[in-house]
Amino acid sequence: MGLFNKKDKELEEVINQIRVDLSNNYKDNAVENIKKLEKLLDEKISAGKLKEKDVTEYKNQLSHFKEDVANFKRTY
């Protein structure tokens, strides 16, 4: 586990935004950003811009976000 593990900046920005959306109960925004993440991830996979390990990690993260949104309960 290195400190210099290079992550994809674009994907990480979208992931961080989804986390913010979920933490602030912005389900609609989270759903839109999950779609954006999925599309961007597919584009990067097709272009061969990600290592297999990173693809697996990002796909797992995407799956968790989809599950979080499916189980989302409004608190107001």
Core attributes:
single chain, about 80 residues, mainly alpha, 3 helices
Provide a descriptive summary of the structure in words:
With 76 residues, the chain is mostly helical. It has three helices and no strands. The chain has helices spanning 9-23, 27-46, 52-70. Helix 1 (9-23) runs antiparallel to helix 2 (27-46), helix 1 (9-23) runs parallel beside helix 3 (52-70) and helix 2 (27-46) packs antiparallel against helix 3 (52-70). The longest helix has 20 residues, at 27-46. The chain is elongated. The model has no long low-confidence stretch (mean pLDDT 89).
The dominant shape is elongated
C-alpha Rg, in Å? 13 Å
Please count the helical segments. 3
Say how many strands there are: 0
Nearest-integer average pLDDT: 89
Biggest sheet overview: none
Which oligomeric state applies?
A: single chain
| Strand/helix succession | HHH
Percent strand: under 5%
The low-confidence parts are none
- N-to-C CA distance: 41 Å
Q: Which SSEs are present, and which pair or pack?
A:
Blueprint lengths: L8 H15 L3 H20 L5 H19 L6
Summarize the structure.
This protein is mainly α and 76 residues long. It has helices spanning 9-23, 27-46, 52-70.
